[in-house]
Specification:
The complex is a heterodimer of chains A (281) and B (273). With 281 residues, chain A is an all-alpha fold. Chain A is built from twelve helices and no strands. Chain A has a single domain, classed as Orthogonal Bundle (MetI-like fold). In chain A, α3 runs parallel beside α6, α3 packs across α10 and α3 runs parallel beside α12. Chain B has one domain: P-loop containing nucleotide triphosphate hydrolases (Rossmann fold). In chain B, α6 packs across α8 and α10 runs parallel beside α13. The complex binds adenosine-5'-triphosphate and magnesium ion. The site of adenosine-5'-triphosphate has 12 residues of chain B, from β2 and α2.
Chain lengths: 281, 273
């Protein structure tokens, strides 16, 4: 097991993805502290191209694009991490409880998984966005989590079912351990690598989902995320053609692409290391 | 279940009566597989009894019922005269332990092998500190022919099958169990280390009065290690009695068949003694 983590550090894909991610995380966490209010509008500086004072220019509201971008990265990451973390947790709980409790619990968890699997995300969001006032980042993360866990729960369930048949589970039972202890100390540690991969992929897809929803205007319209920037960049009409302000929509587009690519490359690197059949080393 | 029978003056450690297990699968059209049917036998204290039979004859099913890992469909199992279900879990596993067929599956690959031994202390009543535990672990391992520094602190894949089976036997000694269910403990380890494990069981029986249910499909090993043998076929006991009688004058045609199939093994195991 120890060897796995060392292999991970030697995986080029994983390390490159991680480096990009770390840079973006720094921009998203340190940036907002140094740059001040991203919503500050300087009405004398509307739609200015990049300059020394505003390295990525200003929006047509006179907001600094770079300042907004840093906030957007941070906020998109928050949504992603909340959704990824919570989604992973739900997937583990729902996926592991069935095989361990059996009977009714198994049937209910399977039913819940299958129902959630066909939950229509966009209509659900439109309904929630229209009903809930003050849709904030955490709430959006929670909603994304609630809709994103089913496939993960399914595969976690099948892994638990396989691991459960291993003799060390019986041995733990014969050491006086109860089911919860066995799941936590014997079964889940063996799925750690897989659970991390689930977390990474759920985080990535949640960031993507939030951006997509923002772009069509059904996510939060008050907090800056990458999708929010793209939404305003294309809906702003004070300049005849929105694509004239290229410095407004290209940076969030590039950053979103880089962020998602980094996450999926990290996932691919982990897959190679943890999945012996794919391992090249 | 009265207290008088608990002392078990009859010297019987484990008694199975009419033990039956039907596996059912499917929700609507249920399919039933016979795991074991009407299995009756007992094991005396300090006795090694072999349970022999071909693959799928229900040996592991019987073992799992005794180990309380699956519930019998019907029948009773008594440990020292009391139903095994009248003991609480920890009390029961303090007395009955197991060694499994596949040592590689018995150790969690996530942990160093010490994990399994440390866990064993959870069943003991004494609250030992770290040093005391480590001391007992070392002396126990030495007593069963393992060099502690060779096995402790290692991951399962760094050990041989024989070392792992010994560790599991050591684990049951740490717990202080009186009855060991050994489900084909030698089938996954190479022939040269097999004799060592078998001899270890024999010496534990002699020195500690350990009772063992030795499950095997190898008549030769049954002959070598035990004085009584139970032969199973398709979930049912077809013959049981002293090893020499059963194997030299088999009554049931199936036993004859089994014996005919393994003359070479029989010879080989004789040499080990
Ligand atoms: N969980 C289960 N569900 C359904 N059928 C089972 C289950 N476990 C065992 N069986 C069936 O019960 C029968 C007895 O199996 P068992 O594992 O007890 O045999 P065995 O004598 O231990 O064989 P082997 O020597 O291969 O270990 C077999 O027909 C098997 O297919
Ligand atoms: Mg078996």
């Amino acid at each position: 097991m120890i060897g796995m983590w060392e292999l991970l550090l030697r995986s080029r894909k994983f390390m490159i993805g991680l480096a990009v991610l770390v840079i973006l995380i720094l921009l998203g966490t340190v940036g907002p502290f140094l740059l001040g209010d991203p919503y500050y509008m300087d009405l004398s500086l509307m739609g200015r191209p990049p300059s020394f004072a505003h390295i990525l220019g200003t929006t047509s509201f006179g907001e600094d694009v770079f300042t907004q971008l840093c906030s957007a990265i941070g906020n998109s990451l928050v949504v992603g991490l909340v959704a990824g973390g919570l989604g992973t947790l739900i997937a583990i709980l729902v996926g592991a409880v069935g095989p361990y409790r059996g009977g009714l619990a198994d049937k209910i968890s399977s039913l819940a998984t299958n129902l959630a699997l066909v939950l229509p995300l966009i209509p659900l969001f439109i309904i929630i966005a229209s009903v809930v006032r003050g849709l904030n980042l955490v709430l959006i993360g929670v909603i994304l989590a609630v809709t994103s866990w089913p496939w993960a729960a399914r595969s976690i369930r099948s892994q638990v079912l396989t691991l459960k048949e291993r003799e060390f589970v019986n041995l733990a039972r014969m050491s006086g351990q109860n089911s919860v202890q066995i799941v936590v100390t014997e079964v889940l540690p063996n799925m750690l690598a897989y659970i991390m991969m689930v977390f990474v992929i759920l985080t990535g897809t949640s960031i993507l989902a939030e951006s997509a929803l923002s772009m069509i205007g059904v996510s939060t319209t008050r907090t800056i995320t990458l999708g929010y920037m793209l939404y305003w960049a294309q809906h702003e009409t004070t300049v005849p053609f929105w694509w004239n302000i290229w410095w407004w929509f290209i940076p969030p587009g590039i950053v979103l692409t880089a962020l998602l690519t980094a996450i999926f490359v990290i996932h691919a690197g982990m897959d190679e290391v943890f999945n012996p059949r794919l391992r090249e080393i | 279940m009265e207290d008088t029978s608990k002392t078990g003056n009859d010297g019987i450690a484990l008694k199975c009566e009419g033990l039956t297990k039907l596996y059912t699968s499917g929700l609507i059209r249920t399919k039933t597989v016979v795991g074991a049917r009407d299995v009756t036998f007992d094991i005396k204290r300090g006795e090694i009894v072999s349970l022999a039979g071909e693959s799928g004859s229900g040996k592991s099913t019987v073992a799992r019922m005794i180990l309380r890992l699956i519930k019998p469909t019907s029948g009773d199992i008594a440990l020292n005269g009391r139903s095994i279900y009248s003991y609480n879990i920890r009390e029961y596993y303090r007395q009955v332990q197991a060694v499994f067929q596949d040592p590689y599956s018995a150790f969690n690959p996530f942990y160093i092998v010490d994990h399994v031994l440390e866990r064993a202390f959870g069943l003991r009543e004494d609250n030992l500190n770290r040093d005391e535990r480590s001391k007992i672990i070392r002396s126990t391992l030495e007593s069963i022919g393992l060099n502690p520094s060779e096995v402790l602190g290692r991951y399962p894949h760094e050990l041989s099958g024989g070392q792992m089976q010994r560790l599991l036997i050591g684990r049951s000694l740490l717990i202080g169990s009186q009855l060991l269910i050994a489900d084909e403990p030698t089938s996954m380890i190479d022939a040269s280390t097999r004799a060592g494990v078998l001899n270890l069981l024999l010496s534990l029986k002699k020195e500690k009065g350990l009772s063992v249910l030795f499950i095997t499909h190898d008549i030769g090993q049954a002959q070598y290690v035990s004085e009584r043998v139970i032969v199973m076929k398709q979930g049912e006991v077809v013959e049981q009695g002293p090893v020499d009688e059963v194997f030299t004058r088999p009554q049931h045609p199936y036993t004859k068949e089994l014996l005919a199939a393994v003359p070479t093994l029989y010879e080989r195991w004789k040499e080990c003694s």
